[in-house]
Amino acid sequence: MFCSSSHLLLHRCFSTYTIPHSTSIAVRSSSSLQEIPKSTPESKEQGGPTSLLYSSTPFPPIKAAKRVVLVRHGQSTWNEEGRIQGSSNFSVLTQKGEAQAETSRQMLTDDAFDVCFSSPLIRSKRTAEIIWDTRKEEIITEYDLREIDLYSFQGLLKHEGKAKFGVAFRQWQLDAANFNIDGHYPVRELWARARSCWTKILSHESKSVLVVAHNAVNQALVATAIGLGTEYFRILLQSNCGVSVLDFTPQADGGPPYICLNRLNQLTTPSSPLAGGSSGGRKTNKRIILVCHGSQANTEVSFPNLGDQPMNMLGVIQAQKTAELLLDLTVNCIITSSKAASVETANAISRVQEAADCLGADCVPRYVEMKQMQNLDVEKVLGQSKQESWSFDMVSKLGLEATEVPQQPGWINGFEDGVVMTALWDQSGKAWESLLEELSDESEEGKIVVVVGHPAVHIALIGRCLNLSKEWMGSFHLDAGSISVLDFPDGPGRRGVVRCINYTAHLGRWSIPITRSTSDDEEF
């Protein structure tokens, strides 16, 4: 199958690249049930997966842009008990779970959905019914959206599973991709099932789709959409009633769509993405919070050549909202680009952090270290792109102005010349190494580092965290004022866990809506 360079970033053709301390592998946006090689000691030390994905049929073409909103069900009775649910159908929503679903309904009440797909399991069906509310269209129950099949594990409390299955339970926690029980490989089966679901969802004649399902299957849906394999299980988190958004854009020649993860695990409770959590039973140890600076002042300067512009009033509001979101955290260090908008955003966060413990006249402000990092300054790199070569298809297709492009999914794909993308990726690698070194101070337990910069460098840093290559950068989208949270439950020397991407709920009325209008005269 032929793949042109202009389409490489979102529509995967076979490509091979080398992950540090592992072998070269072929990568494509779908999965198979082949066994995944176990990580070598070197690759585990590096923190990255040793393999990603395997070939299968491409995604079906679509006629119009499609946005798919994934929602995990609210808290269930077995969630509350700490019982392994799998695809069993005995648990129901708790009172808290019903309230979470109601909050999701309120968040999505003005959004225009054409259809809703739901898992057949009670906890998801009830969540879907609450969110769908008075909409007239029928909810489509899809059996393949059920939760991961865990066979003999299902129904056990976690300590019971550990006691009864020993080594197998340990493998489920540490090497889920190769976990085998009752003659089955549950995670591999799940990935194949998720891939089947995408064919059904994309084949449906709709522009805006709501999917209500479960933790593991939603992880698999996100991963298979953007081309990640089973070793990414438990890496892209899905909290109860967490919302993830994927954009599918048709190709002019009728090939598989461009695919972009617009946001991951957007939660209806503003402080939720910052709450402590665990991955595979491991508590969060250290954390990097990526903060995109607020909107910039000079909108007459064409993107990406914005240069060193200060924030406009909207950007100032976004920076303050972000500072308030981080208020309950003890931030150890703020690392920022030296550009004006980033420094302004970092200063807003610093002021709120240093005043957080001051409840009286005799208080002593808490000092928060703030540093500037030159490798976060990517505006000059982006400015190397000549306007005439910066030709993202959506610009001509939708009649957009250059300043509107950053709002479009996969806007970073506009840098087709390769030089800019390579320079951005290489510079992000230096920044990433410095950030991990900053995080690795063993004397500071639970260290939190806030990183402030341009959305483009944060997209590259997310790719670095996931141990991807530069070709993946077009698979992620970030908005001004958004935050993304990267956790390191096993320390910065091991692979990170992405708690959320492009979180904007804290911006309130100034945030980007979950869905866009799907009327005939408007596109995404």
Q: Please compute the radius of gyration using only Cα atoms.
A: 22 Å
Helix/strand structural class: alpha/beta
Strand content: 15-25%
Helix percentage: 25-40%
Apparent shape: globular
Give, in spatial order, the strands making up the sheet with the most strands. 5-4-6-3-7-8
List how many beta strands DSSP finds: 16
What's the main sheet like?
6 strands, mixed
Low-confidence stretches: 1-55, 387-404, 517-524
Average pLDDT metric: 82
Instruction: List SSEs in N-to-C order.
Output: EEHEHHEHEHHHEHEEEEEHEHEHHHEHEE
Spatial gap, N to C terminus: 28 Å
Q: What is the count of helical runs?
A: 14
Concise structural overview:
The protein is α/β, with parallel strands linked by helices and 524 residues long. The chain is 29% helix and 16% strand.
